[in-house]
Write a structure and sequence with these properties.
2 domains; alpha+beta; 211 residues; disordered N terminus
Length: 211
């Protein structure tokens, strides 16, 4: 039985594609191996399922009524959803009421998993990751002043977000987090605001048992 023109054309095209793929593997074996399997960076995950924990280290400053303080921080989030945060700040003004402070708390990023499950992660990567980084948190803080040795403590609430500089979950980010601090009643101080501005590095790690 004679082959149809369509079948012959299909086999010719398939053969050319096969020869091209074979030549690619022979001429560029290292690059072919590096690109297979294809990266899933366009599936709305952007590397966030490469592990179960998003770890980050942060360096920046804290703006408050008393002036500017240098800050370092860190965080760990389970599947970019729920995590813990810690920040240490030291005032750049020796006469500031609070010379240094330390805060620790919990943070929730509620948008990533629902948006991914509903197919709303459609790119671009930096926009999806920025939206998914919107977070609300709460915790406790402790501070002291060098001038009079006064120590204060209290609770805080926060809202924050970040922008990935390379469009990937792992890598450099710029982050901001606004806080409302509520000193305890013994401090005789009013509630006040603070703003963290950080350049951070995030890395996705597998800390729990992998399947």
């Amino acid at each position: 039985m004679a082959a149809s023109p369509i079948g012959a054309a299909w086999r010719e095209s398939f053969g050319r594609a096969g020869v091209s793929a074979l030549l690619w593997l022979l001429l560029f074996p290292g690059r072919a191996a590096a690109e297979w399997p294809p990266s899933a960076e366009d599936d709305g995950v952007y590397g966030r399922f490469r592990g179960d924990t998003d770890l980050s280290l942060k360096l920046g400053g804290m703006l408050r009524d008393e002036g500017l303080a240098g800050s370092v921080g860190g965080s760990a989030h389970y599947y970019s959803l729920l995590g813990v945060t810690a920040d240490y700040s030291e005032s750049l003004d020796t006469d500031a009421p609070d010379a240094r402070s330390f805060s620790v708390g919990l943070e929730l990023r509620p948008l990533f998993l629902p948006r991914w499950a509903l197919g709303l992660e459609r790119g671009p990567a930096w926009l999806d990751l920025t939206l998914d980084s919107l977070a609300a948190g709460f915790g406790a803080y402790f501070s002291d002043a060098e001038v009079d040795g006064r120590n204060t403590r209290g609770l805080w609430l926060s809202l924050g977000a970040g922008v990935p500089l390379l469009g990937s979950a792992s890598g450099p980010w710029v982050e901001v987090r606004g806080l409302r601090r509520f000193p305890d009643q013994t401090a005789a101080l009013e509630a006040h605001n603070a703003l963290f501005v950080y350049l951070s590095w995030h890395h996705i790690l597998q800390l729990g048992p992998s399947e």
